[in-house]
Amino acid sequence: MDPNEVPAVPAPNGIESNLIDPYSQQSILVAVTAVTLTISLGAIAARSYTRAFVVKQFDLTDYILLLGGGLLIAFASIQITAGQHGQGRHLWDVSAAEFSQVLLYLNIIEILYGPTMFCAKYVVLRQIEVIFLNHQRKKFAFSLIRILIWANLFFYGAIFISFILACVPREKIYHLTVDGICINTNASIIATSAINVVSDFSILLVPIIAIWQLQLPLKAKLGVATVFGIGILANVTSIVRLYYSVELTRTIDVTWAIIPVAGWALGEFASVIVVACCPHFPRLAKHLFKGDESPVYRISSSNNTTNSKKFARLRNRTPNNDESATELRSFREPDTDRLAGETAQDSGWGQPRTYP
């Protein structure tokens, strides 16, 4: 029997299979993909331009974010391709041959999920570290960030490997009649979604702890917190994705039930990427609308390091004249409270602070 003319599963009672022109949710997925890619890639472009041409401090985190953007494009492209082979239709409206293709694409999508999400979350965590904790390495929040980076690396690395080795041989992933062994894919999907929720909440908690330890006016604290508060969107999307992942494991109609999971995964990517990029938006806006060409970047670490070294050199010199003494008095070693306060000021939050 030709697998192109046989439905993947029998239709429920009272329903006929339609392999000719079945209804599909593909248009919904295409719309969600277009919106989330526009937001994500636009945010990455804005951050990259700011880092490369405004503050001129393009570093490893920027390259990692660009890698994440490329992986997101691949993730979204395969989602759309899977829709052309039956994803988004009821399973009884998908031929057996098409279903094999969908299973392969779904496996590739799960493989891409881990590295893509890690790239985005790594940038968020490093950004929190640079803004709030660059000179406070003994604080608990700094250690927590390092722990979260390594935990996310191991977690998403494990997801990556587990879906590569989902079946041995791999052919069994999409040819169910082939002899071999497979992991419990349903359990892996639920575990991935659940741990991802924990990861999102942990990342949201760190900047809140760091911000409230700073010596800033409440208005400025709330302003800086607003930037990372956008991370609540990531928490919401990950929770909703977990719900639909559980629903996916409870139905045989997987090609239909996978669409909400795919859509909310794209939303989760977009929200995390926006969190990684939005602290740079005020700086870009100032550059574009106020003509600020200054390369000074107040939340970066390299300027802080340079200033610290200069301070040390000045401090070790003996001010033999009024000019040297004046230079030493006029230079202050940077502190995190001030940097965060200036970040809030750049963003339009609170009133400018005066430092003696």
Automatic annotation (TrEMBL):
Q: Which GO terms describe its cellular component?
A: membrane
Keyword check for Transit peptide, yes or no. no
Stored InterPro entries: Rhodopsin_dom_fungi, SAT4-like
User: What topology in the membrane does the UniProt record assign?
Assistant: Multi-pass membrane protein
> Annotated region Disordered: where?
300-356
Where is there biased composition of kind Basic and acidic residues? Answer: 329-340
Compartments where found: Membrane
Q: Does the keyword Cell membrane apply?
A: no
Alphabetized, the UniProt keywords read: Membrane, Transmembrane, Transmembrane helix
Q: Which domain of life is it from?
A: Eukaryota
Bilayer-crossing residues are 28-48, 60-82, 102-124, 144-166, 186-210, 222-244, 256-278
Query: Do you know which Pfam families this protein is assigned to?
Result: Fung_rhodopsin (PF20684)
Instruction: Show where the Rhodopsin domain sits.
Output: 46-285
In the record, the note on similarity to other proteins reads: Belongs to the SAT4 family.
Its name, as the record gives it, is Rhodopsin domain-containing protein
